[in-house]
What we know:
113 residues, alpha/beta, 4 helices, 3 strands
Amino acid sequence: MLATNPVFPEIAIIERIKWAGLEEDCFDFITTYENMHFCKPHIQYYEEILERIGKKAENCYMVGNDVEEDLIAFKLGMKTYLIEDYMINRNSKKIVATQRGSYKDFYEFVSKL
């Protein structure tokens, strides 16, 4: 599942996925402005995703590098992993994350699951 901010149409999001060296088929669900009603950092964005994928917050991780837009998922009980490489913290918000580290750290973390 790819929870990218749905401010672009599907065709643009798919191109962004390709720029990252991935394929659309890697994801069961991708947020786009055609299929979502809210954007980050609205908590309703994450509630809608959970409803769409049929999961409970406590069984999910939100992984991202934006303190305000990604870590808000924590308020629903979702675990969060802050990628500190290229971290965005526009308003110097207090960082509340279940875990944090570099891309490399995250890769090692996921490899152990």
